[in-house]
Amino acid sequence: MNRKQRRAQGKGKNPSGPSSRGPSDYHREQLLARALSHHQAGRLREAEQGYRDLLAIDPKHAGALCYLGLLAHQSGHSDDGIDLLKKAIAVDKRNPDLHYNLARMFADVGRDDEAILHNRKALELKPDYQEAHANLGGLLLLRGRMKEALAAVIRGLQLAESQSLRSTFVMLAQSIEPETADGEGEFTKFLTRALTEPWGRPRDLSGIGTAVLMRDATIARAIERVSATDDTQQLDELFSWEELARIGQQGLASALFTTSPITAIAIERVLTAARRSLLDQVIACKEGDESHQWLSFASTVALQCFINEYVFDVSDRENDLVSTLRGRIESRLEKDKEIDPLKVALLACYVPLHSVAGADRLAAHEWPQALRQVIVQQILNRQIEQGIRSEIETLSPVRDEVSGKVREQYEENPYPRWTSVAAHVQPIPVDMYLRNRFPGAPYRNLGDVPVSVLVAGCGTGMHAIQRARQFTRANVLAIDLSLSSLSFAIRKTRELGLSNMRYAQADILEFKSDTQFDIVDSSGVLHHLKCSRAGWRRLADLVRPGGLMHIGLYSSIARADINAARERFAKDGQSFSHAEIRRVRRQILNLSGEDRLSKVTQFSDFFSMSEFRDLLFHVQEHQFTIPELEEFIAEIGFTFVGFETPARNAYLKRFPDDPAAVNLRNWHTFETENPATFAQMYQFWIQKS
Ligand SMILES: C[S@@+](CC[C@H](N)C(=O)[O-])C[C@H]1O[C@@H](n2cnc3c(N)ncnc32)[C@H](O)[C@@H]1O
Fold it and tell me: Which of 288, 355, 390, 521 is within CB 3.0–4.6 Å of 550 for a Cys-Cys bond?
């Protein structure tokens, strides 16, 4: 039953329509209300008896038919459920809830065409039916009918915006091609809102966002001019003031630049060229002569450069000019003299402002709004994190030599640098989450209990925060080696007002706990341990019997190009300065498209310092194959539940005899045939026997 029906039931309303009217109305309503309250409390046998009692008096009671159908569906008898819903509709054709519920059932059993049809019927009867819009959009998306899905979701957002529609929009935006989005004028408007409010994680929307942006006429012109220009071109020869003002002040461009690393080389080149030209211009100006028209644009670029941790290429000449600029600003700060905001914004495009001598004074100054955001990002947040750092508890020492080196890397480059997560998340029980994701998997319910979660190697907290928000009654303990990462995570957790999370410094290899956890989650971590299997075994011991692990590990098949690039550019175990890392990036950017190694630029990790460092220069990295995973999962006494991957549907088409998608030998074949399947790691759930 949907939320509205539950509300109606709460108010004693019977959604069943005509057949409930008559002299014994009151008695029927009583019977239905009683059966529903059993249903909601999970007393399914009593609920079923209640609906049957009512149907014995009134065989055409649409409400009783509907709820009995839902109950049959929930108990695994979907065919009976569907028949009962059809009977209810035969009694009450114009009831949108009945069509909606039937659509949900059809969707759950994979009869998508019928599900789409009944969703459309529900919407004909009730055009502002929020759940039906979201459901229809989601179904069309699953069927790959992108244009129709987009039209359905946009129409839904226009008529009846809801959280579930926003989430469907985010899912859709992640899989849609820019050409498909082009036809829908409202797409860019909703995408911009999805990035800034935000409706999902901005980094998940950055791919489509940049693709759409590159089709914007101003940006397309800038890309063309930058690709045809040399380094010495002046800013006003590259862009008009109006163009930069437009980029800096509003719209999709600024939403993208200020929320996650830009992942398109062409746009990176535009921003790099604009930054360089602006620097030339500002350095050439006399004190007080600077033009303020660039401030908004420069501040936007500064926000982007801090987010990507200054990964953009910098020439030696620029480095000299930046030193001059820094010197001028520091000297004026010391003498308490007026400082031009544009100069500060520009310096922030090259170095974080917290590294400037006298940063406190910069922060205390009154600045225009555009620059103020940069000050918050680069000085004030850092001060908060410094304060948090000394409060972090330590649960185990970091003694292992490799753990020490790994820690050092993440102290310097906490991973990943993120800005925001979805503003609203509707928590759901773990059982519902896993059953929806992995229908048919050999999964045993955890039950309706509070869930304790250990996130091992939480980094800067994005993933741990997601777990704390997505599961009902979750309590999360998140551990990591790196205090910089933990400080960032704790600041973000406080900003979001989450009280069900605790953070501590610990090495997985030494971490002990008096109690076991319902879930242990370790994504992108175990492959950085000296011995991944030792760490994995230790974490497995911390899972209670029947509990779950979510693991993320590198695939050696998916990372073949990365391995080749590492061979060429990096040397195992050798640390690299940021300047050297930029130099390697420049070399990769200059490779011809034919060169196999240029494929490295297809990884989103290429576009920020910490992620690129993680990608190519990690001090410790192991990789796995599916047969190795299978062997180890059996060895530690767990059962495979499922891979989290968008490739699931393609797998099901390739291996229709494995509808639960749990045969790891098949998965190995599938990966061999499609080597990029696990480019974002193997991400999977396993359950302890
Ligand atoms: C690539 S980051 C992944 C962060 C996070 N899990 C995510 O997916 O965003 C790896 C993290 O694992 C942590 N880590 C590596 N080895 C560890 C160990 N032995 N004990 C605890 N944390 C570790 C690092 O400090 C780093 O923050």
Answer: 521
